[in-house]
Amino acid sequence: MSVKYIPVQWNLNKWMYDACMLAGVAAFLWVFIKVAPGLLSHERPISSQIHNARAFGACAFLMLSIILAIGPLAKLDSRFMPLLYNRRHFGVITAFVATAHATYVINWYFNFSAVPKFEAMLSSNTNFGQLLGFPFEAFGIFALLCLLILAATSHDFWLKFLTAPVWKRLHYLIYPAYIAVVAHISFGILQDQQSLFLPVFFIVTAFAVALLHVWAYMAERKTGDPLATADGDWMRICQADEIEEGRARIALLPDGKRVAVFKHEGKLSAISNACAHQNGPLGEGRIIDCLVTCPWHGFQYRVTDGQSPAPFTEKIPTYNLRVQDGAVLVDPHANPPGTHVDPVEVA
Amino acid sequence: MADNKDKPFFVGYLTAPDGLRSFLIGVGIGLVLLMAGVGLGIGATQDDPGNGAFRNDYGRQTVTGVMELTPYPVVRVTQGSEHVPEGHTLMLSAGGKQSLMNRVRDLDGELVTVSGTILDRG
């Protein structure tokens, strides 16, 4: 949360996160570039430009796979939720690593000719009509452009400027980018690979990422938020005594939006489940220091009016609520963001 | 989603709760080890690029043959040398990626004499 834009709002956890990530990248590149050549029994060494291109390319694939695994892991086991916290930094560094891979490739394979290197990259293979020898570079270019767009728009300025729903949809580009990377590798280096390690690692990793997403989707369907049931013009959420102090129950409303009913100091309040920052699930958060705290990035709101405490300016919609015969009923028509609603005493 | 009421709650700008700290340290260490391990695995199992090399020990070779430009410039040797027998097909190369075509463009089908260093592809 911030009242003004700064490049990075550093804190201890972000330092730790970035330190681990950069240590991982440094370890990968150091081992690949400095240690591995000594273990190869080749008569002649691999050209350093090719070796470096492979190192950065493989590193980018692994990083992208890890990034994509974080989301479903966090859904399956909330202990992984902190890995979401600074995932954008992971993505930005991945874009840098992928750019380094592309730079080595372009400056080696497409350089040293009368044709400018970028023109050579786009024109040297145009066999788009055949599978064998397909210009796999096109997949890599597409993936890199996606990663650069995501990195360039990763800052909260763009999140606010584009609005959270648009920004999130834009950042779903990570999925086509990953599919393009898989195709880039499949039609590229795997076509001429004799060693088994890379193909096995690549296939296992790509399948693991896909499987995690399917697994998390199935788990979400199985234990997902219940649909609120109609009770006249109101929607029935749950029994009031089912809500624990400082926690919420989430329900899906007929318009597809989710409402989170919190209990704070023995009284109930209903707010939108979508955080104004990145649409994080507020109902999975907790009340800390009298404020609903988002589990994704810690944005906070007063439970009675959906407003962030001054000097912050974020607002979310609230809902009118009543308790009838022990059941929590919510008016499905949301109030404008920031509207105060008196909390309801649990009878 | 699954009820996580009994699990520690992480807020990015606050100190990580005790129940989560050791898990996150383990994940961090695991990440570094995983990346180092994968780097080693892929890096140390790269295919052999072969033993291609300039055969400077042969010295400069001069042969005569018929030039063919399609699909790539080659010479069908009709009169060989010490290390290039008659009947051999020599694939030609030159500095850079374009200079060879510039030099042989007009020689398709011609009887030519070429001279240079043998580059063994391995």
* Nearest-integer average pLDDT of chain A: 92
The number of helical elements of chain A comes to: 10
Amount of beta strand of chain B: 15-25%
The gross shape of chain B turns out to be rod-shaped
Q: Spatial order of the strands in the main sheet of chain B?
A: 4-3-2-5
Give the termini separation of chain A.
Answer: 36 Å
Largest β sheet strand count, sense and barrel closure of chain A: 5 strands, antiparallel
**Count of β-strands of chain B:** 6
Class by alpha and beta content of chain A: alpha+beta
Helix and strand composition category of chain B: alpha+beta
pLDDT averaged over residues of chain B: 89
Tell me what the structure shows.
The complex is a heterodimer of chains A (347) and B (122). Helix content of chain A is 47%, strand content 14%. By secondary structure, chain A is α+β, with helices and mostly antiparallel strands. In chain A, the strands form 3 sheets. In chain A, strands 3, 4, 5, 9 and 12 form a 5-stranded antiparallel sheet that branches. Chain A has a 4-stranded antiparallel sheet with strand order 1-2-11-10, with no helix packed on it. Chain A is elongated, with a radius of gyration of 25 Å. The two termini of chain A are 36 Å apart. In chain B, strand 2 and strand 3 form a beta hairpin. In chain B, 14% of the residues are buried. Classes of the chains: A alpha+beta (347), B alpha+beta (122). At the A-B interface, helix 1, helix 2, helix 3 and helix 10 of A face helix 1 of B.
Question: What's the topology here?
Answer:
The complex is a heterodimer of chains A (347) and B (122).
Chain A: H1 12-39, H2 48-76, H3 82-85, H4 87-109, H5 117-123, H6 137-152, H7 156-162, H8 164-171, H9 174-187, H10 197-223, E1 229-231, E2 234-239, E3 248-252, E4 258-264, E5 267-272, E6 286-288, E7 291-293, E8 300-302, E9 318-319, E10 321-324, E11 327-330, E12 344-345
Antiparallel strand pairs in A: 1-2, 2-11, 3-4, 4-5, 5-9, 5-12, 6-7, 7-8, 10-11
Helix pairs in contact in A: 1-2, 2-4, 2-9, 2-10, 4-6, 6-9, 7-8
Chain B: H1 18-43, E1 53-54, E2 61-68, E3 74-79, E4 89-91, H2 99-104, E5 111-116, E6 119-120
Antiparallel strand pairs in B: 1-6, 2-3, 2-5, 3-4
